[in-house]
Amino acid sequence: MSNSTLFLSSGFIRTPLQNGLGRYIPQLQRITFKFCKNHGGSRGVRDFIESDLMDFAKAHPGTVVYLKPRRHRSPCLVAEYLNGEREYLSCHAFSRDEVQKWLSHMCTKSGIPVMRFRKYQHTDYPTIQGVWNPFTHQAPEINTADFPHDVLSKPSNQEQTATEQLIEIFKKTQLKEMPEKEDK
């Protein structure tokens, strides 16, 4: 584990209300542009507002866009998501393209904070038996065997194979149907 993950909260993978199973619901509820009308550090945000904001608003009709001019303050973006989370991004000295890239990043996020994952799988009802996989109860001889193998290919608890059982069931049903057809 690296030192950068020590200060992250830990948790499990969550999806917001199974989003995407029925229809996709964008999780970004509102975005607020805070900028200064005169300061040089807000130039990229101002350029984005003048040229690309209307296209963004048309492409994302479910997202409310607020513009908040502030005097002598550094520009920032505030994204608010449906789950109540807020994300602040300082846009000091960003170019127009950088603002656009960060905005598209915020639009595609779910609003769930970045976290360190505890495990690869999670269940609400944990088992005491451990994690199952297809090779859990297999014979270890299979690892080195060359197939077809005479001993491993034969079923241990049955004299007949499944194919032989199906052929026998088919023949029995054919014999039952034959006398009915002759009686008619």
TrEMBL record:
SMART domains: L51_S25_CI-B8
Keywords: Mitochondrion, Ribonucleoprotein, Ribosomal protein
Gene3D superfamilies to which the protein is assigned, alphabetical: Glutaredoxin
Coiled coil start-end: none
Domain Ribosomal protein/NADH dehydrogenase: 37-110
One GO biological process term: mitochondrial translation
MF-aspect GO terms: structural constituent of ribosome
GO cellular component labels: mitochondrial large ribosomal subunit
Subcellular location field: Mitochondrion
Protein name (database record): Large ribosomal subunit protein mL43
Organism: Megafenestra aurita
Superkingdom of origin: Eukaryota
Gene: EOG090X0FS9
Pfam families the UniProt entry points to: L51_S25_CI-B8 (PF05047)
InterPro entries reported for this sequence: Ribosomal_mL43, Ribosomal_mL43/mS25/NADH_DH, Thioredoxin-like_sf
Major subcellular site: mitochondrion
Family: Belongs to the mitochondrion-specific ribosomal protein mL43 family.
